[in-house]
Design goal:
By secondary structure, the protein is an alpha/beta fold. It is built from 17 helices and 9 strands. It has helices spanning 3-19, 37-43, 55-59, 64-72, 89-101, 113-127, 201-220, 226-248, 253-273, 277-289, 293-308, 313-322, 332-349, 364-375, 387-396, 406-409, 415-425; strands at 29-31, 48-52, 76-80, 106-111, 138-139, 148-153, 165-169, 176-180, 188-190. Residues 404-426 have low confidence and may be disordered.
């Protein structure tokens, strides 16, 4: 990256970092169970709500206890359950129409990051009916209060229940764009381990790695605060202590609750400190090929961290010490290498592949340009990279770049397929 562009990016990031103390960041009020929602809604005089979820979650009956409890409390609940992975502007407009027809007063996003992002975008369109979602792309373009927004995450990964971001895909062009503004932070977040208990192992694994990516990228970036560093460290400690347990035993309620809290903390951290090139590359893959976001992050994370080189040794060493992988007496490089090795070993234990087979070589230059446009100048990454440098990450995880073997041939099923297999077997 040339000097002028680098100076612009760093100046842009410095201004945002300086503004953090005066910007209206907030955290949602936390609830521990969906059973607490009817009383909350009654207290707020809300009698009509829109529940946004997906067909798989509703089909397996995960939303039914909440729907039943709302019905018993005489709270009318309309349900939009057509949200897809990487939610589209079409999803948003369909759900918005249902909200308006039902004269609803609040929105509940129930599901993974896709459903919660869809709920946020619906809220934005309700607040700004004359403005399209594409016009809200970027930073601070919503700036109006949304209807009461409640997030119920069913995966411990995205942290969407704590963030000011929603990522929407254009249903025609497949362009994937983020919307970032403070009104998108949900007013309430329900961290209920019961709704995550039946998640398949692979979904638990990749969404957990998604949370790890959020925390690590927030920590190693150049716009951290004392609070975001503390949130990121606690999230990483919880993930290292609980992700294997949650994957090995879905009924381990303590591990499930701890993972939900880790995802929430990681989301809180990157809301202020932002993410990095792992996310920019992963978003381009989600937009182009519909690759699940958590999977893309999990595959890419060690490659990007290694590419940052010595610039992240000190911070990765700090994280290594925090999770008991290294001693403060070690050099920064030794500690950083121990942390990177632990991430790779975690991927192996959790059966996360090393490749993303959907990537086509001819698509890489355009994918890299999309990632660079998203990341620069917003993301305060340790090392700035142009699109040409980002191309290497796609080549690193292409199937043809790996020798034949189990991981290079392994195509991870989609979340819907995994859920269906799990419940059929049960």
């Amino acid at each position: 990256m040339n000097f002028a562009k680098k100076a612009y990016c760093r100046s842009f990031q410095t201004v945002f970092r300086a503004a953090i103390p005066v910007l209206p960041y907030r955290k949602p009020t936390l609830l521990g169970s969906t059973k607490e929602l009817p009383a909350l809604l009654r207290k707020k005089n809300i009698s009509r709500v829109l529940l946004i979820t997906d067909a798989s979650i509703r089909g397996f009956g995960i939303t039914k206890p909440l729907e039943d409890s709302l019905h018993k409390a005489h709270i009318h609940c309309r349900v939009y359950d057509r949200t897809v992975a990487n939610p589209t502007n079409q999803n948003v407009e369909e759900a918005r129409a249902m909200y308006l027809r039902g004269d609803c007063q609040a929105i509940i996003g129930f599901g993974g990051g896709s459903s919660i992002d869809c709920a946020k975008a619906v809220g934005a369109r309700i607040a700004k009916p004359r403005q399209s979602l594409s016009q809200m792309e970027g930073i601070l373009k919503v700036h109006k209060r949304l209807p009461t927004l409640i997030a119920i995450p069913t995966t411990a990964g995205t942290g969407s229940e704590a963030t000011l971001a929603a990522v929407i895909t254009d249903s025609k062009t497949r362009h994937k764009y983020p919307i970032n503004d403070f009104p998108l932070i949900p007013r309430y977040a329900v961290l209920d381990p019961e709704v995550t208990r039946t998640l398949p192992r692979h979904v638990t694994a990749t969404t957990g790695m998604d949370a790890l990516t959020h925390a690590v990228e927030a920590y190693i970036g150049r716009s951290t605060t004392k609070e975001t560093r503390a949130d990121a460290i606690e999230a990483i400690q919880l993930i290292f202590s609980n992700l294997d347990r949650a994957c090995d035993n879905g009924d381990d309620t303590e591990a499930r609750r701890n993972m939900l809290h880790a995802a929430y903390l990681a989301g809180s951290a990157f809301s202020k400190s932002y993410v990095g090139y792992v996310h920019a590359v992963a978003h381009s893959l989600g937009g182009k090929y519909n690759v699940p976001h958590g999977l893309a992050n999990a595959v890419l994370l060690p490659h990007v961290l290694e590419a940052y080189g010595p610039s992240v040794y000190k911070k990765l060493h700090e994280l290594s010490v925090c999770v008991g992988l290294s001693s403060r007496a070690n050099t920064d490089q030794v500690g950083a290498e121990a942390f990177l090795r632990a991430i790779r070993e975690m991927k192996i234990r959790l059966d996360i592949p090393d490749v993303i087979p959907e990537i086509r070589r001819e698509d890489v230059p355009e994918l890299a340009r999309t990632a660079a446009k998203e990341a620069n100048p917003l993301y305060p990454v340790p090392v700035l990279m142009e699109a040409e440098q980002l191309e290497q990450f796609y080549y690193d995880v292409m199937e043809e770049s790996h020798e034949s073997g189990r991981n290079s041939r392994y195509r991870l099923p989609t979340e819907d397929v995994l859920c269906q297999r799990h419940h059929t077997a049960g």
